[in-house]
Amino acid sequence: MSANQRARLTAASRFSISLKTREILAAYTFLAPFMVFFMIFVVRAVVEAVRMSFYDWHILRPSRPYIGIENYIELINDNVWWIALQNTIVFTALTVVGTTIVALAAAVAVTRPIRGQNFFRVLLYTPSLLSVGAVGLIWVWLLNTQFGIVNYGLSFIGARPVNWLGDPGLVIPSLSLTSIWWGFGFPMLIFIAGLQGIPEQLYEAARIDGGSSTDLFWHITLPLLRPTILFVTVTGVISHFQVYGQPFIMTNGGPGRSSYSLIFYLYQIAWTAFRMGYGAAVAVCIAVIMAALTSVQFLVLSRRIEY
Amino acid sequence: MVKRLSLMFTLALLVTMMLVMSIPTSIVAQDAEPEPTPIVGAFGGGETKISYWNGLTGSDGVTMNEMLAQFAMENPEFEVTSEIIPWNTLYAKLQAAFVANQPPDLVLMHASEVPQFASFGVVMDLGPWYTSGGGWFDETDISEITYAGMKYQGVTYGLPLDNHGRGLWINTDMFDAAGIDTDPSTAPDNYEDWVSLLQALTLDVNGNNAADPDFDSENVVQWGYVVGEWPRVNFLSALAQHGGELVSADEQITVNSDAGIAALQQAVDLVYEYNVSPPPAGFDTWQGFASGSVAVIPTGTWFRNFAVDQTDINGMAWPQVQFGEQPGTWFGIHTFLLPASSTPEKAAAVETLLKWISANQVTWAGSGQVPALLSAQAALDPVNYPSNILLGQTFSDYGVLDYQSTAVQEMYAALDPELDAALNNLSSVEDALNDAAERMQQVLDRAM
User: Which parts of chain B sit beneath pLDDT 70?
Assistant: First the structure.
């Protein structure tokens, strides 16, 4: 091997190392625009919120004294926080379970080869396109005790008018029902994608072995949808734990505080009382709770699926 | 083939939906009556621009916009952009606007909020606009209580537009059917007589009234009263009637005083003892009145145009109910404020607009509200403005101005759910008011 060849090989090996580095650099270059915005608008905001939670921070007041963990101590002793937390957990549980079941049922239904399949998919997805304002107002009227069409329908079977949004025992389920109707469209699409990813030969083999449709669903579809269910429930918990628009528009947190949610209370603290420091403490605690819930979900549902 | 047809149908559906959504509202609502108040309206096209925020989401917003249009027509050098924002959101947006140093040139708010914004130093001292400061607005032409409501720590920050407050609206046909005189001067002056009147107006499906032993409280078709119509101001009125107050002279919350408990208990009893009112939750009071299922609605000056334009009910205003030993009715003041950061040119432009509005306060009475200027009140025609005159007189005689504090919003945020809980029978009156007092005291202590 001549000296020239050796030099070329050395240069080539140097080039291969620098190529790897260049690839990494290229990757980060492509990520950079997102990372810049992410750092400015998310990370910085999160850090700032955590910092604010240690101050008596009023939005327009010039003095913002450092008060240590006083906001957190106040939070622990704040009975409205605990009411709102309880309401939010109940709402989230009902809505996530309801949405998952309805979305899965809808996905299974519209995955079958039926006439007008796309039409039904669009139809079922349509409520997701509405704003929370429109959804809230529609359902306030549907569930109205005096003039609502739901109570009107129930009157034909002799039922007395139900105070859907005024009964403390019914208000959270009613808000949950509204949210399920509004929100099941997107999880349905995810489930459709998940269903299409299950190999058809598994169903064929099961049918040959005499499995019924129910057997196929319980023993093939549902287990193999576990990653999809994980995704739907995790995103559902994150989304519904932050419920705000429905109680704000439909009940204003009432009756009493029966439909106060955490974000509804957070809004009151931050934008009615203008106590940004205490509001930041509430926000930090909500984020910690959501992170904990998500971790539990991952632990329970993230068993690896091989097929 | 079927798949392609489905796809085409879906696309057609989506295109149709998009087209429907893109049709201008004005075309869709061409024949609709009444038209909604435009949320953002631009009036005039002059060089001098004024941005103006207010919370007049009801029919009073229509009147305000009509006045602005008239102003712009008479003063072509101006362009006024009016943005109507629900009150709670308005206060939140204002805070953000002040932080961003982009406040509107003019804002209308309630006098109760003046201390909060004045304490931040973000609103302008309007003292020089008053005659005592060498200006044009005659403070002797407004009531003393109204003038006091414009101030915070001795500085005058507001310019009053009106007095708006509590009063009743009655369905005169129901009164006639029950054989009750509709003359407001015959209104009862004690709780027992009010209960008797409201019982006579509450009917079950069989036509029995609430005083009848056979009355079926589970099947009421006509309610005498509705306690759920803005319970806080009803409570504040009743509290004053019983000689109580929201905050004592030594800065203690006293909603849970004997007066407060009596005031709230009476309201609760109207629902659960005398069956003359539905529980608040789930009952739409305005629609209840409009649909002819409510005889007496405790509302306010702002109800006039709704009652006239949006219902077929034969109705009229009555003074606020008197459940305590003395009359008392809550009222507030719509107040103009300018940001402290206004330039002299901008402030002068806004001053021109406010001079015009003040000179035309009689026109503002068309909104149902009572003009702040005493001269404008005196000029009201009794035929066209009976409710303004009647209720305005009650504000002058025994009105209770909305509490003013640097933390009034937060205090009310603590009070409202407790009142709602008591009225919906989720909490006892004592517990509700004790809880409210505790939280409100924390707020007040923090604000001081």
Answer: 1-38
Contacts of range A77-82, beta carbons closer than 8 Å, 24 or more positions apart: A80/A257, A80/A260, A80/A265, A80/B439, A81/A262, A81/A265, A81/A282
At B221, phi and psi to the nearest 5? -110, -15
Q: Which helix (H) or strand (E) holds B165?
A: strand B159-171
Q: Are B44 and B75 in contact (CB under 8 A)?
A: yes
Whole-angstrom distance, CA of residue B9 vs CA of residue B51: 46
What is the CATH T-level fold of the domain B166-329+404-447, as seen in this structure?
Answer: D-Maltodextrin-Binding Protein; domain 2 (3.40.190)
Q: What CATH number has the domain bearing residue A141? A: 1.10.3720.10
Any idea what DSSP says for residue A258? T
Q: Alpha-carbon distance B317 to B369, whole Å?
A: 12
pTM (2 d.p.): 0.84
* Nearest CA among A187, A180, A177 for reference residue A108: A187
Residue A29, CA distances (Å) to A22, A23, A110, A257 in order: 10, 10, 42, 50
CA distance B429 to chain A (A): 12
- Residue B445 tokens read as 């202590």
Question: Is A119 within 8 Å of B9 when comparing Cβ atoms?
Answer: yes
pLDDT of amino acid B37: 54
CA dist., res. B434 & res. B257, Å (int): 9
Answer whether B95 sits within 8 Å of A255, measured CB to CB.
no
Q: What is the DSSP string of B28-50?
A: HTTT-SSPPPPSEEEE---SEEE
Nearest CA in chain A to B96: A59
